[in-house]
Each structure stands twice: as C-alpha cells, then as structure tokens.
Design brief:
Length: 265
Amino acid sequence: MKKFRRQIIYDLRAGTIQYWKQYSVIFLFFLLLHFIFITSYQGENSLSYFDYIWNFVKGIPPFAGADRNQSFSIPMEWAVLHIICMFMNLKYPYIDLYERNIQFFIYSASRRNWWLSKCIWVVMNTVIYYSFFWLGAAVVNFIRQGGVSSQILIEINPWKQVLMIFVLPIFVSIAVGMVAVVFTVFLNPIIGMIVGLGIYIASVYWENSILIGNYSMIIRNYWVKGEGEIHTVKGILFSIIIILFTIAAGSLMIQKKEIDRKGKE
C-alpha cells in the first residue's frame, strides 16, 4: 500500500504538476474564449457564471437527419473542452511506461498497481483540468460582476443544472479519456487519439445513447429538450460502467504486456 501511495504521488507530480506551464496556457485560452462569448452574446439578460460554462458544454443538435443542405460542423467550444482534456490524459501514461520505464520498477509494487495508479491519475488530472476551466469562467464572471444562476436555463431546476453542466461532462471526459489511454498504452498513441476523436465525432453526427459523447452535449439532454434518450443520470452511470470496464481490462492486459527497462515491448 505504501508503494501504491508513492506511485500515485509520483504520477501527480510527474504527470500534472510538471506540466503547469501547459495548464497556464490552457487557462489563458479559456479566458480568451469566455471573452469572445461575451462579445457574441445577443441575449437580453446579462450573462452569469453558469452561462459561461453552458457555452462550452451545450454542444449542437444532432447532424444526422437534419437538413441535407446543412454542412457538418463540430461545436468549437465543446470540442476544445473535451479534446484538449483527452490529449492531456494521453501523453503522460505513454511517456511513463515507454520513456521513463525505470519508474515502473521503482515505485510500483506490481504491474497492476502501476495501471491502477494511472487510472486514478486520469481522474485527478481531469478534475484539475476542469477546475482551471471553471476558474477561468469565475474570473470572467467576477470581472463582469455577473450572477451565478443560469439566465439561459432559467426554467431548469438549479440542482439539475449542476448535474448537467458540471458533473456529467467530467464523467464523460474521464470515460473517453480512459478508453483512449487503454488504446494508447497497449497499442500506440495514434490509435488512442483516433479512437477518442472518433467517439466524439460520431457523437456529434448521431444522437445515440450508446455513443457516450452525446451525454456531454447538454442541448441534447432530456431535461433541456423534454424528449429523447440522453438522460443525465443514465449518462453518469454509463460513464462509470465504461470507466470500470477499462480499469478491469487494463489490469488484465498489463499482466501480459512484456516491457524491458528501455521501454520496448
């Protein structure tokens, strides 16, 4: 257990704290996008903290079945939020296993502990990433002296807003991140990125409860639309199932993976 705790601490330092400059750039980038949203907003009511978050998680209606003359497009803010998060989760596990492979033997009591530590790191790293995103919105809202409750989703219960806007997107990001990390660690980073991007792109095109990315686009949520299969609680439970499955699958595969001290299979 002591070695496992050391591994988790090591992962947090080497996989997150060491990349503080990247997080600083991401924070500034979020600030810029929040201010761009302010300049483009044409609503009658003043923007609130929840509205800045909503701008990134709302997504778009499904493309499939829409007007044939409509060109396929991906919502920029939504894509930025989720795809950057996925990339931030992919890099470190691969580097630690194949380039800093000696740490595999020093800090981990077992291969399974190494993998479980990486899974915990993905969760922590995703929460930290979203914290910077939320902080950016808070800073902009403070400067603008805005309120907290959403003016756009004013008819929806505040607790439902919290679940939709704050909780659900994190679970989806963790789930997709875990799937991409499995393919990255056990195959290669290119395949991991393709799988992760494929999940998000397919989710934009098709509104289907099996495509996990749909749950991260709140404009498709049942509480917003009043119809459909994209439910908040269902999305959280589905994300948890995916997370647990990838943890279990990775625990089995890491036992069979042959790795030397130079990081070669």
